[in-house]
Amino acid sequence: MKMPVGGEDTGMKGKETILLVAAGLLGLTEPIWAGDIAEPSGYRMDDYRAPVPQTLQGAKVVTTAEAEALWRENKAVFFDVMPNTPKPANLPAGTIWRATIRKDIPGSTWLANVGYGALSEETANYFRQGLAAAAGPDKSRAILFYCMTNCWMSWNAAKRAIEWGYSSVIWYPPGADGWEDANLPLEERKPYVISN
User: Fold this and answer.
1) Can you tell me the distance from the alpha carbon of 126 to that of 66, in angstroms, rounded to the nearest whole number?
2) Are strands 187-189 and 143-146 parallel, antiparallel or unpaired?
3) How far apart are CA 65 and CA 184, in angstroms?
4) Maximum Cα–Cα distance for the chain, whole Å?
5) Residue 189 main-chain phi, psi, to 5 deg
6) pLDDT (tens digit, 0 to 9) for every residue of the chain, 196 residues total?
């Protein structure tokens, strides 16, 4: 068989590309972030499920393998910031309500709804209290934020923690679904509730 100039078999190169694309679509590889997504100067205010940047100024960005090592060695406090829709207060009698079941990284604290671009004073206080309850008063303690792949909620929450003076902020962009794709354990979680 005659090889093209440069010694490459272009037939194999095409097959390898197809296999890599298929693996990515099936979630068998680390997510590929859109390289052209720039960090905004402020918070992301809408379209929260969209490609995210590869960076977050002031934070360390980690892969699934790096997040797993932090988790196994208990070197960071994990925070899930996935939004939660509570049961509406005024449902008509007889209406069946099925709350969404959230599975996250074991040992995490689920601080629901703290990843929006604009937070009410009540939600900001909930966020601050949840951070302090789980991570303690030492703002240099490593804290890791996640949500889901291509979710700006964790980017916003990590950015806000940096602005509040936390100095060891870690952002895990693949989130709970990236964790699950790596066949790592998940557990059912309820949102954090402030105790009176």
Assistant:
1) 28
2) unpaired
3) 10
4) 77
5) -140, 145
6) 444 444 444 444 454 544 444 444 444 444 444 457 999 999 999 999 999 999 999 999 999 999 999 999 999 999 999 999 777 788 788 888 787 889 999 999 999 999 999 999 999 999 999 999 999 999 999 999 999 999 999 999 999 999 999 999 999 999 999 999 999 999 999 999 987 6
